[in-house]
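Usage example:
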Amino acid sequence: MAGPGRPRSFDRAAALERAMRVFWERGYETTSMTDLTTAMGINSPSLYAAFGCKEQLFREAVALYDATEGGPVTRALTEAPTARDAVEAVLRHNACAFTQEDKPRGCMIVLAATHCAEANTEVRDHLARWRCVGMRELAQRLDRGVREGDLPAGVDTSAVASYYTAVIQGMSVQARDGASHATLTKIVDRAMAAWDAVVTVH
Amino acid sequence: MAGPGRPRSFDRAAALERAMRVFWERGYETTSMTDLTTAMGINSPSLYAAFGCKEQLFREAVALYDATEGGPVTRALTEAPTARDAVEAVLRHNACAFTQEDKPRGCMIVLAATHCAEANTEVRDHLARWRCVGMRELAQRLDRGVREGDLPAGVDTSAVASYYTAVIQGMSVQARDGASHATLTKIVDRAMAAWDAVVTVH
DNA sequence: TGGTTTCTGTGCTGAGCGATACAGAAATGG
DNA sequence: CCATTTCTGTATCGCTCAGCACAGAAACCA
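Running the assembly step on the lines above writes:
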């Protein structure tokens, strides 16, 4: 593992985790390299040597976020026995995840780059693609529900996915605005009470 | 009206309208003073003389946004005969408003300051307060529905307001990501199909 | 041991940020 | 007319941004 040259004096994975926290908390554009180096406990050249540039570091941070915070969601989606159970598990998990005491509130993928500088539209598009993937995963789980018979044939699964994705995105905004776990749970209760009506529109 | 001194050589209201567009499109932090002066067609000192500073200009822009874009929403809320009609009118109006060809997509109040620099937390809080007001207006309209009998007594109106607010906020995110009017309408269709279930949770 | 390689910390770079100093221009009041 | 006031354009200000040059330090290999 160790080739020639002076070995890195910091834990790359731990530093990335700290960077993820900062980006999650403060967003891409409004996080400065100084914020990052301070949080990561390293100097600027070490950061550039290990991660390339701010944008590459952000992409790695997003990937880490998806793996750690998004992992349980994906798992809940696939492991639940029915489409309804899957959606409910995702929503209730997010109601908890978005209001954890020791973590930034809401979803990083929804909140971290709603806008960006003209030169960095790539960053916004990158997150938009992740959002799109999340919605598609949800739609595919609904499709599976149709195939397995727990959802009626003819359901507009992509429309239902858009709807529940909108609820989740709104929960992110409200979580960031300080909404409590109880409030998010009330939103989830209503979104799930709506299930039968939502899947049988037209 | 005209006192002593050289008269202003530009239309203050028109310049403010242009500034609102830019802030709506690009957000608070990611809009530079150069972006603003260019769009407004004036030089920096004229901007500062007329509007104070970037933050004051933003607040005026938000107030203008609320008056122009938010006005129809507030009107729909009060003029609709029932709470259900009111909520549906707001949602359908927003499905259109968020996808207009010649305007930035989504709601400025939801999108323009999800994050800000450490020194400008006031700006974020300012918009968060506007979001909170919108949700409260919705809750008050639901309360009126209870008083007028078109909603059953005992409805958790603030929970229902949180739920529909979440849907609207999610619609803003998806509109900004490029969702079509048709897609937003499908979300609205489902959110409204859910009405009976949503207002009778527990 | 010395040569090579890679990382580290100091200190800097050009560019862009929000905000102004200043002098001249254009209005009013006397 | 001239004094006063306020706006306008030019030309910056000090500061922070993302990113890097460079020299020294710490590992490897021969």
